[in-house]
Amino acid sequence: MESNMIFVPMVLAIVGLLFMFVKMSWVKKQAPGDERMQSISKSIKEGALAFLGAEYRLLLVFVVIAAIALGIISMLVDTTHWIIIVAFVLGAFFSALAGNVGMRIATEANARTAEAAKTSLPNALKVSFGGGTVMGLGVAGLAVLGLSLLFFIFVKMFVTGEASFYSEMTIALEALAGFSLGAESIALFARVGGGIYTKAADVGADLVGKVEAGIPEDDPRNPATIADNVGDNVGDVAGMGADLFGSYVATVLAAMVLGNYVIKDMSVNGPFTDSFNNMGPILLPLVIAGVGVLASIIGTFLVKISNNEAKEPQVQKALDTGNWIAIVLTLIASFGLIKYMLPETMSMKFFGEGYVEVSSMNVFWSACIGLAVGALISVVTAHYTSLGKKPVLDIVKNSSTGAATNIIAGLAVGMKSTFLSVILFAAAIYGSYTLAGFYGVALAASAMMATTAMQLAIDAFGPIADNAGGVAEMSELESHVRERTDILDSVGNTTAAVGKGFAIASAALTALALFAAYVTFTGIDGINIFKADVLAMLFVGGMIPVIFSALAMQSVGKAAMEMVKEVRRQFKEIPGIMEGTATPEYAKCVDISTKAALREMIVPGLITIITPIIIGLIFGAEPLGGYMAGVCVSGVMWAIFQNNAGGAWDNAKKSFEAGVEIDGKMEYKGSDAHKAAVTGDTVGDPFKDTSGPSMNILIKLTCLVGLVIAPILGGHSTEEGMAQLTTEEVVEVKNDEIKKVLVDLKVINEDMAKASVKTKTIPSGGGEPVITETVISGTKEEVLKKIDELKEEATSFHQTGDAAKKQ
Amino acid sequence: MESNMIFVPMVLAIVGLLFMFVKMSWVKKQAPGDERMQSISKSIKEGALAFLGAEYRLLLVFVVIAAIALGIISMLVDTTHWIIIVAFVLGAFFSALAGNVGMRIATEANARTAEAAKTSLPNALKVSFGGGTVMGLGVAGLAVLGLSLLFFIFVKMFVTGEASFYSEMTIALEALAGFSLGAESIALFARVGGGIYTKAADVGADLVGKVEAGIPEDDPRNPATIADNVGDNVGDVAGMGADLFGSYVATVLAAMVLGNYVIKDMSVNGPFTDSFNNMGPILLPLVIAGVGVLASIIGTFLVKISNNEAKEPQVQKALDTGNWIAIVLTLIASFGLIKYMLPETMSMKFFGEGYVEVSSMNVFWSACIGLAVGALISVVTAHYTSLGKKPVLDIVKNSSTGAATNIIAGLAVGMKSTFLSVILFAAAIYGSYTLAGFYGVALAASAMMATTAMQLAIDAFGPIADNAGGVAEMSELESHVRERTDILDSVGNTTAAVGKGFAIASAALTALALFAAYVTFTGIDGINIFKADVLAMLFVGGMIPVIFSALAMQSVGKAAMEMVKEVRRQFKEIPGIMEGTATPEYAKCVDISTKAALREMIVPGLITIITPIIIGLIFGAEPLGGYMAGVCVSGVMWAIFQNNAGGAWDNAKKSFEAGVEIDGKMEYKGSDAHKAAVTGDTVGDPFKDTSGPSMNILIKLTCLVGLVIAPILGGHSTEEGMAQLTTEEVVEVKNDEIKKVLVDLKVINEDMAKASVKTKTIPSGGGEPVITETVISGTKEEVLKKIDELKEEATSFHQTGDAAKKQ
Description:
Order of helices and strands of chain A: HHHHHHHHEEHHHHHHHHHHEEHEEEEHH
Main location (chains A, B): membrane
Strand content of chain A: 5-15%
Largest interface: A-B, 104 and 104 residues
Number of strands of chain A: 8
Structural class of chain A: alpha+beta
Keywords (chains A, B): Cell membrane, Hydrolase, Ion transport, Magnesium, Membrane, Potassium, Sodium, Sodium transport, Translocase, Transmembrane, Transmembrane helix, Transport
Oligomer: homodimer
Radius of gyration of chain A: 28 Å
Function (chains A, B): Sodium pump that utilizes the energy of pyrophosphate hydrolysis as the driving force for Na(+) movement across the membrane.
Shape of chain A: globular
Protein name (chains A, B): Putative K(+)-stimulated pyrophosphate-energized sodium pump
Number of helices of chain A: 21
Strand order of the largest sheet of chain A: 5-6-7-8
């Protein structure tokens, strides 16, 4: 039966995009404020688009080079089709498009939010959250649309029934990996470049403006003010958006690859069939993603407040309500879909345990684990970085003895925060794998990512509110406007910290799912770190996040220094700037940040992309797996450490605004303790906004590059086209005993081969099955001979044993 | 033929110890200085011994608990004998004894060095280096003596020829692991406790003395001065000594375990024999260690200067000469020993490649790699932490814009320094493994550690010179005395940084060798991180060093605060203290540091020891392997990062003493930039002296605990005593074809079993061998049946194939 299930996510994605257009035009219809507000908003928008423009030019170069490289791969490797180039370019284009749409709406919504705040807080929330919704739906809608459209086309192209379903589907999914690689490449540029941009502008504006010239933040006389506001959009809107777009696509892709593997595992019992064109486990993650878009739309309707006098808790509650409704709806729908689309029990291969029967309910529980761990990691993140909690208070207390003790305390908080996060994360891996293998891990990640649209709407609303405050300040609006935008901004700060926890948790689970997909793609038996080359690469991988962080931190320093010099120059050379009679040259500062960001991200970007390729080509598939694991383990640790230390320092500094009690004495802004806290915050800035969040991209992109080059490394490639032959043969029943044989033959080169022959014998009357796996290596001739012998033995089984006994 | 080779290391160790006594009595015969100097020296000695005394009391509790735990293990597990308790206690005792001897001589040598410096720099060097030599030879001599003595006894006890050589030797080596565990436990107390002690005293003395009261460093009016000087001995002499004692013993032990594995591998071709009681590969590392002691003694004779006007370079050159002579002699001797004691070619099993013929020269090249990498990592460490080099100058430059930029620059230097160190380290693993398997890795570590006596003599000489300067200052000796001790101290600072590089490199290689020994002990097939539980534990392991560092840093902060309060109290309550008419209560400060250090090290110590036990018992052998790998990868990274960042900050601060040029302006002590650099140094202090060096112990102890509990986890344990049966059978020759079969049977529980049957077929006329490995899992009955079938098939080989063809 032809199934039309593939159209479901496509339609849901289109619904999401239509709703996005409705919301977009609604936001644009709102009053844009007076001329000054419009002019400031326009400057921010132009700066942001200038950054995007410059980024696109650099991207074009990158995309062309990468496309050529992919073309070469597709020529060298039978199982990689040139169409991967199209998928790659489309992935890059869709991600860039989503970022562009989000950035445009965010920079339009800021002045409109400020204007709405003149009369009503509920309206201001509606406008700013509306802007966030556009971003969220744009990202999720384009991701699901791109994936389902390409998957539809690739299945038509490649899954023709000429070869085995598994190998044809592998080719289709490998091409689809190009889409994910394209998306993640944009994320690299947006997240790392954006991170450098925003901190260079921020530090530059603060050092000269606040410290040297003594003018307040967001003061229109500061030439770097616009760049600073652009930075919020570039880093927190476009950067976060591209990061989650990448995670979203990669998670769904990895789950699809592992779904294909489930089908392969089940084919040991004969060809797999279901009423979804025999690809239920592959389609499931895509459909869940589509349903998540719909659930998110419903959730957005619930984000509203009615009281004009509302404070932070009410606003937070409105956001939480929307978020939880979206999550619960997704969970309910997932339950139905899992029951509907998956066989009641599946046979999955577990390393070292052989084939295990897994119920579809286990897959659902895996999804629940994903959602629970995502939520709990957010809670842990909030604990370590929130105002008034012990970790932040510890840093505050240690500020009284100077900057050094403040720094030590902040570092210790960041380091300690890894404990619970990693335990949760390890529990998620262990739990979801135990329930449903790596398919379970991928589904856990998919469930977590399903409500990305809602999550991103909440994330993007923060910077819009922050910018609205900036517009209000620069346009010298009445103070109650700023008070209202401050309420929204304050809630936005909390959601930003939680969002970072969500982003790293999702990136880590995504990386794991990709890692699992990589192992199945290469056809290796696992990644054994007791092999010295694998262990060596585990160490090298562990080092990469450390170096990447160091480079990112240094980049911020360098770029900020350039900004400082430019601002100083303008203060000196433009007469009347301090009196407000002359306009500073905002564009020059924007330009400096843009150029510095793009220039500085080239080296870390190249390290990320080229290192796995070099290691894969020189050492092979398994050491590259060790490298990927090293990057993930170390990357997760450094991400949590840097994000949370930075967040905690930031709030320790903020604590002084309301005054804090240290050893029985109240300390306020301007005290020595506050100065120490400012030093800590300055150290933490690149941690939390540049190097920390960059880790997400580093670990995902590393695994994705591995996945894309997997066909070159694994047994797929060969002369004679016989690289890897997997035959599922000989299902015999004799004396009620069932015997199944699976032969995996890998030709290493002209002379040598390696094969694995697995037989599973289920004794008559049930009972524990006996699994034997024979690994043979030697000359091709000898190995083929031995396989024949083993197959003979299997088909004539019990004869050997009986014959032996008679002797 | 009975070989007496085992007595060679024993005799060499005794020679080392005799020479130590000679040197010790020579040092003691030197003039101890005037009454005041003697009194100060006595206070330091008493403080140091007070710390040791308190440590021993805590240790006694620990040793009793651990001995009981080991007793329980030995009762539960057939292959673990209760004698492991004796080995454990002896290991703890020898390590403590070595530390005690070293600490006593160091605290006697300080005043004598100052006295000698009154007249002659060459003599001052001779005395201080003499003290170091006593420490070095005490550690190395006791280590080699303990290991060879116990090994001799255990071989007599267990290797009786009743069971297979491999399994009997495994029991002997498992008992020997107790000695290593005892030694490393002391190292935990000495290194972590000592690290907390020294920094608490240092920070406490500085904060109140230098900053609040404005009196110089080492001023006798400061109540914490003695504690500060005691700290140098506790941390840098006893801590470093115990650390290297532990590494030394563990490395040799791991190499012996892997030597046993080499013998097992070679037994596939029939029983292994050589003229060293058939245990050449096991004895080799022990003999090399013995020879290293002799080479170190010869090296110490070359450490001398003749010119009284010599400066740092000449002193450094004298140390370098002695060091290199010791290394070269060891290398030459190793070449001869390897050629003499190992078979010309060995058959070693490489994962995934089967059995490979390895020449004994490969083992020698592995040893060369170990020495080369040890030296190169020291060079890298020196580059990142030395005065006048780019990394330190970068930090200096960034001090001009305040503490925040100084901190960021220092963090970046530490992070970047991981790059070359890790690449070198990965190259060492890869190179030595490729040459000679994990035996090669262990021999690389052994070669690096062979000159531990010399290395430690150089390391311990620094703190003695530093203390001599303190004694000179406190006794108000003439300034030329201090100038001379300062020359020695300055050289000591450089050797300390390099020594830290050596310590972490050796700890890392040791951990790897232990890790390899662990895998062979448990009998698992490797550590596959594609299994979810293993991967989850890899993450958990990666988190432990981060948490450990955070706890250690916090401990320093807490202990320093207590010290600050006590010093403040004494200044306030003891009249005449500032005028020098009343003596401060030094002992109270010593007591505070002692108690705080011991109290604060309990939690990190427990985490280190208990976590691997819990993981091993709950999840099993392979996940514990993943945990160990996680701790090693992350631990090495954090050790290098923290050590080098701390060292670089320290020297960035010191740069200001001679004056530095920043942006064309000279900056000196007391400038704002210098203050920023002081902040950096304060952050770096716990990094480089507490948490950084603690990582060494953490990674070694983790692997060692794993090794000791391996028998509980692996296939050794079982009812029926049939846990792991390894039979090496059926060597048949038919039609010139040679066939060998190796059966490994593991009984999992009453019902289930797992077996591996390996056959190696060498075709007639040579050519590539065909190796097949069949892994069978299922009910015990079925597995045994299948093994019989496979054996039948092997003995009657070609019949099945021929028969099949006829059908």
